Amino acid sequence: MEPHPRDPGRTAWALPCLLLLALPGVGAQLGQGFSLQQPQTKVSVAAGETVTLNCTTSGIAEPGPVRWLKGWDRGNKTIYDQTTKDPSSRVTRAMNKSKTDFTIHIRNVQPEDTGTYYCVKFVKSDSGVDQVFQRGDGTEVSVLAKPSPPLVSGPEQRAEPGQSVPFTCTTGGFFPKEIGVKWFKNKDPMVAQPPQVTESRVKTYNISSTVMVTLQEDDVRSQLICEVQHPTLLVPLQGRYQLSRVLRVPPSVEVLAEPSPVEVNKTVTFTCLVKKFYPANVSVSWLENGSEIKVENISRPVELPQGLFELRSQVEVQATEEKNGSTIVCVVVHDGRAPASYSAFLWTSNPGQGGLSKGFQMDKGDMLIYIVVGVVCTVLALLVAAILYLIRTKQIKGKSSPSARLHEPEKSSEATTQESDPNNLTYADLNFDKERKTIRRMVEMSQQSEYACIQTNQAPNGDDNLTYADLDMVHLSKAPKRPAPRPEEASSEYASVQITRK
Ligand SMILES: *[C@@H]1O[C@H](CO)[C@@H](O)[C@H](O)[C@H]1NC(C)=O
Ligand SMILES: *[C@@H]1O[C@H](CO)[C@@H](O)[C@H](O)[C@H]1NC(C)=O
Ligand SMILES: *[C@@H]1O[C@H](CO)[C@@H](O)[C@H](O)[C@H]1NC(C)=O
Ligand SMILES: *[C@@H]1O[C@H](CO)[C@@H](O)[C@H](O)[C@H]1NC(C)=O
Ligand SMILES: *[C@@H]1O[C@H](CO)[C@@H](O)[C@H](O)[C@H]1NC(C)=O
Ligand SMILES: *[C@@H]1O[C@H](CO)[C@@H](O)[C@H](O)[C@H]1NC(C)=O
């Protein structure tokens, strides 16, 4: 600020003297009060944006242009020259006509524009060559460059579940060098190898990050995500890769023959079930004893919910007698791989045997047997129910008529009673109501009479010892099973009630 008070005077004095500038020797005196300011030391700008580099001068200097140079010494480059006009240049003056403000704008800054810029006042030497008269302190321009959209690349050939394959994420052209790379499989974070950062062009970097992925059968719908975070980004950039691009799930194949065996001269359908494969390109052909069978309907793969495919190819074969034991082969070619064969045999049976011995018809026969058995069982069950019902009704009737009751042996504390009764005998207590011996009872007897025979042990065969009792109804209390009475035991007597239908 020191020169300012003198400035108006000098300017006023200098203006008429401009006419004298051409005269040698005068200019040297004029340059003494000249100064040049370049206030910015560091400027950072995003690539593509415009950067403003300030430069102002004060005082009067000898004639000569003000220029902006990028770099100093060797490798310097003039980016702006007051004396030349280049409309196509990215560099423009902020104040076009000003003789003191040499601020410039640089449009569409690129990473290559990174460097130190100097505002320089030149003066013409005696020989007419521009010489550096004064320069600013320089402004360091750094261009912040966003990384390019990340690209994820995978193996060139498809791989099968269980195989571990590398995926690489690359991005480049960013500045500054600091960058973060994260990997995800669907939403799960993954562990990657340390990224490799390389300097690409001037003041930009490239990065490459690799991750190993073990493929799985259900990866058809999975995707890898490479997420790049950089100071120039508000939201991370993502690169995606569908694992279906590199996945190959070989099919599992099954050949079914129905019906088997088949009756001679009937047709048997062979089904080739090609299950769970990816990608969809599969071809199925059929061979019968080595020669191709023409398939009328070419079935298409069906997509399953998890993204795998399934295909069902069917062929019908006439089961002639000479074809018995023929091999029917289903040849599957998946995704250009080597053909794989799966075979089944054609078995024929004679019409007579076919139905009964084996196969689908045997099931029919079994069904018939089951039906018959079922019907018989139902009839039997109904019979039993009817019998039980009859017994029930009889019991109810018996309650109103004279009865013979069989008692359990009375539970006595006397040991002798139990010893004399080793077989836990049940005895009959036949007490008839004398008043009830009426005609009515006789009538019933005539229709359906039962009698009990009470025998003593001493004379099992003697007819004269038998006592007969006419029983209207015998009520038998349930007693635990016991061994048959043994007649040898003379000390015990037993009674058996036999009911014999006449
Ligand atoms: C740079 O120059 C422009 C245009 O003359 C001006 O508006 C701005 O304030 C200056 N900036 C600095 C830091 O001097
Ligand atoms: C700029 O470079 C040229 C040639 O490379 C050199 O002659 C000149 O002296 C340099 N100028 C400055 C200011 O360093
Ligand atoms: C760096 O990355 C950029 C953009 O992704 C690319 O164009 C360039 O070829 C890469 N350079 C090197 C050396 O890998
Ligand atoms: C099957 O067909 C052939 C030719 O039509 C005939 O000769 C043969 O008797 C048939 N066999 C039976 C078991 O029907
Ligand atoms: C083959 O195609 C015909 C007509 O398009 C159809 O009637 C028949 O059921 C198909 N056969 C099979 C095995 O899909
Ligand atoms: C077909 O071959 C099988 C096995 O050799 C045999 O059991 C069957 O009886 C044969 N069928 C006919 C119709 O000859």
Q: Could you name the CATH class of the largest domain?
A: Mainly Beta
β-strand amount: 35-45%
Give the C-alpha Rg.
58 Å
CA(first)-CA(last) distance: 153 Å
Distinct compounds present = 2-acetamido-2-deoxy-beta-D-glucopyranose
Counting structural domains, the number is 5
Considering the protein shown, what is the CATH homologous superfamily of the largest domain?
Immunoglobulins
Q: What profile does the largest beta sheet have?
A: 6 strands, mixed
The CATH topology annotation of the largest domain reads as: Immunoglobulin-like
Mean pLDDT: 77
Number of strands: 34
**Helicity level:** 10-25%
Which CATH-level-2 architecture of the largest domain? Sandwich
Q: Which regions have little confidence, pLDDT < 50, spanning 5+ residues?
A: 1-29, 354-365, 399-479, 487-497
Structural commentary:
With 502 residues, the protein is α+β, with helices and mostly antiparallel strands. A hairpin with a 5-residue loop joins strand 16 (196-199) and strand 17. Strands 2, 5, 6, 9, 10 and 11 form a six-stranded mixed beta sheet that branches. The chain has five domains: 29-144, Immunoglobulins (Immunoglobulin-like), CATH 2.60.40; 151-245, Immunoglobulin-like (Sandwich); 253-361, Sandwich (Immunoglobulin-like), CATH 2.60.40.10; 364-396; 400-502, no CATH class. The protein is elongated. Helix 3 (351-357) packs across helix 4. The model is unreliable at 1-29, 354-365, 399-479 and 487-497 (pLDDT under 50). Helix content is 15%, strand content 36%. It has helices at residues 7-17, 26-30, 351-357, 359-398, 415-419, 439-447; strands spanning 35-37, 42-46, 51-53, 56-58, 66-70, 77-81, 91-93, 104-106, 115-124, 130-135, 139-144, 151-153, 164-174, 180-185, 188-190, 196-199, 205-214, 223-229, 237-242, 252-258, 262-263, 267-277, 282-288, 291-293, 302-303, 309-318, 326-334, 340-346, 348-349, 404-407, 427-430, 450-454, 467-471, 474-475. The structure holds 2-acetamido-2-deoxy-beta-D-glucopyranose (6 copies). One 2-acetamido-2-deoxy-beta-D-glucopyranose binds next to strand 29.
